[in-house]
Amino acid sequence: MMNAHANLALAALAFPAHMPNSKSSHIRSRRTRRPLLPLTMAAHPPIRTNIGMSTHGSASGGGEQAGISSTDRFRMIDFHHVEFWCADAASAAARFSFGLGVPLAAESGLSTGNTAHASHLLHSRSGSLALLFSAPYAQGDAVTASVPSFDADAARRFTADHGLAVRAMAVRVPDAGEAFRTSVDAGARPSFAPAELGHGFELAEVQLYGDVVLRFVSHPDDTAIPFLPGFGSVPSSGATPDYGLTRFDHIVGDVPHLAPVAAYIAGFTGFHEFSRFTADQVGTAESSLNVVVLANNSENVLLTVVEPVHGTKRRSQVQTYLDHHGGPGVQHLAMASNDVLGTLRKIRGRSTMGGFELLPPPPASYYDDVRRRAGDVLSEAQIKGCQELGVRVDKDDHGGVVLQIFTKAAGDRPTLLLEFIQRIGCMDKDENGQEYQRGGCGGFGQGNVTELFKSIEDYEKSLDASARLAA
Amino acid sequence: MMNAHANLALAALAFPAHMPNSKSSHIRSRRTRRPLLPLTMAAHPPIRTNIGMSTHGSASGGGEQAGISSTDRFRMIDFHHVEFWCADAASAAARFSFGLGVPLAAESGLSTGNTAHASHLLHSRSGSLALLFSAPYAQGDAVTASVPSFDADAARRFTADHGLAVRAMAVRVPDAGEAFRTSVDAGARPSFAPAELGHGFELAEVQLYGDVVLRFVSHPDDTAIPFLPGFGSVPSSGATPDYGLTRFDHIVGDVPHLAPVAAYIAGFTGFHEFSRFTADQVGTAESSLNVVVLANNSENVLLTVVEPVHGTKRRSQVQTYLDHHGGPGVQHLAMASNDVLGTLRKIRGRSTMGGFELLPPPPASYYDDVRRRAGDVLSEAQIKGCQELGVRVDKDDHGGVVLQIFTKAAGDRPTLLLEFIQRIGCMDKDENGQEYQRGGCGGFGQGNVTELFKSIEDYEKSLDASARLAA
């Protein structure tokens, strides 16, 4: 029923291009996994998707284990890494390593025989979180590249256009070549044809949105290779602090028009609609946006797509992103911790010396509401911790609780942010009796979404020159 | 006598384009302030300079106080700042702030009404050291720029060409317009005509080498403006640690041919030759370079220019720089501390978590020699500290001692390095009886130069792919 519904929703994926200027900004505590409102027709006609016609989902899908959905055209095991294209990858990697407490784990460059690009990989010891930063050398031999899809000229244009930005969102799949071919057969625009990297590694890319690519990586379960062939381990990585970030929870892209992008992604992946929020549900009093969350079968790969809503009092923050980024792109990376309060205290401790700054807390009354809604799951100490750090709290219908907070802009521009998240509850057992947490536990807290986007709006107001100068 | 000599040396500034492959790599302990060897004619004829014809030196010069020299065409009060052009200035500034312990002190950008560039200023509380990092926004209004010479398209090309690199070396002068006009009259190539910034600030630029500019900044002694008009103070800066770096000691540029560049700079500034090293003096067993240090009258603004020597066993590290940087540019920034061992311990403590890595120490026997040469000035504890950290030690004829160390490459490429330096001794009194340290005290330690460049050579060997792969 859910999949049929999701398919239907995607096939007719639609948001009004202009919403009436009557946003509700109060907190809603119910997790939303279905459209709550009737959807009007989009200004952009939906792209036809192949959902429901897949013959790959059951053949290669792995989501059945979770028993949630089975529409995937090919199995996505998990997020593998995210790659930033940089002008100087060393500085960006160093700053993220320090600010987020994710150790520098592997490198590729002149010292490994790669004259095409300098790459620095951060990898958490607490989990699988992997952040790759790459930059072109002045003059390199492309055939020596460790990431074969690296394109020096494209990277130079990319950083000139976008500043600090994500080029690739990589997922691990059982067979990158198969994932690529299946995707392209189902309408994906190819970006980089499958390439064997040796040692059983394969890599391919399709376009995602803007100039961001979805990268497929496959490799043996048991490998001694650090990250990808051509990378060398960093000996000192063991000495670096790890603040407890474990993996990507979800990755969010801002686009001008949501419907065609969501339909495109769902079309070639087979992803189902995990959640959606319309302007009426998550808009603040002054601006708004529409959101769709797409998920693989096992709901551990969550891709969110957001579009601006126009005609509101303030310009949509999504439009601000699009203007300053220079088109569609990754707006935030949500990274999970098993102890997000502990992780945040460490991250905050580095804020004023080059780390990342957290958005300020909501008013104290917000946490009175948290006590009412989630006091049965969170201890008073935890709620106080959330208040101290400004963490937003929401709870879904099944008792799952989600803790979330955003940083201020990670780079120069009001574009890329980071989110830290912890999901509590929703424990299940797989067929082997192993406990696991259902993906997306606690949902995307509609109340949180409103609160989080409101906090970004407040932050953007602080960047408003006229407001600042008038103050 | 010295100035006459310096003028003569500059007028005929000359290094052989090819030196015989017979470098001496042993340590020389004597400070060198005169050419030790007869100079052969350069492959490039010297550019005629106006040294000795200046009418500005005595009119606006302030170096007379130190009584060292009086050839300056206009007074340079001190280094003012260095500006990096970046694709993402936030990451670079954050990394330098954390890695070097220099607090983020001021910013300009959207929040201050500057839509042209995002700029982050690091400024030491221990002194006057100022590092500026700037990047273009996607679409900005150039007239809102706080640094009026900022050119978004040029900045994008600059970062694409060079990666992490210095765009501007700024000196404070009594009158930026006058410095600019005097320089241009004396042969400087103009880059940015004098502009009034308000509040008594003025800024102008002439070309230095490659696409690096020499920026003149003038402002009232007593001003409440943080850095430049258009910048806002960063409130949290007081909470950030300061590791004790105080100022730029000297700034080094790598160029293909030293003679014309040194003659050009000396020609429009009136700078005298402070020191020089030829390939025979500072070459390692395998490669070499020629060095000239130029100084203003008071020898607190020291500009070093270096050229490669070809035909040696290994390619000159200067040529490596030129290839990877993509032309001439700033090769290292030497930053002073009044307690370099304490500063270095803090810098080293951040090395493995995103800071800067120091080059490894020389063999223990090196420090036996240090005991002999400088044991009368340095305590045994200090010498042990130098050994622990890998600090090189040299001593000049007047008992001045200099402690120096380099970092590994600061960014992705084997180009920009950082140097940390402490000069001990050479205390003098000015006409008011105030004690001050004579500029360049301890000299440029010819032995140190050899040692330092050898350590870079060893580091570059570690980047040599074939060496690494064969190991």
TrEMBL record, chains A, B:
Keywords noted in UniProt: Iron, Metal-binding, Repeat
The keyword Repeat appears for this protein: yes
Example GO BP: aromatic amino acid metabolic process
Ranges where the record places region Disordered: 20-41, 47-66
Compositional bias per record (Basic residues), positions renumbered to this chain: 25-34
Protein name: VOC domain-containing protein
Coiled-coil intervals, chain numbering: none
Aminoacyl-tRNA synthetase recorded as keyword: no
Organism, scientific name: Triticum aestivum (Wheat)
Gene3D superfamilies tied to this protein: 2,3-Dihydroxybiphenyl 1,2-Dioxygenase, domain 1 (3.10.180.10)
Names of required cofactors: Fe cation
Family: Belongs to the 4HPPD family.
GO molecular function, one term: 4-hydroxyphenylpyruvate dioxygenase activity
CDD domains: HPPD_C_like (cd07250), HPPD_N_like (cd08342)
Residues in VOC domain copies: 78-230, 247-408
Entries under InterPro entries matching the protein: 4OHPhenylPyrv_dOase (IPR005956), 4OHPhenylPyrv_dOase_C (IPR041735), 4OHPhenylPyrv_dOase_N (IPR041736), Glyas_Bleomycin-R_OHBP_Dase (IPR029068), VOC_core (IPR037523)
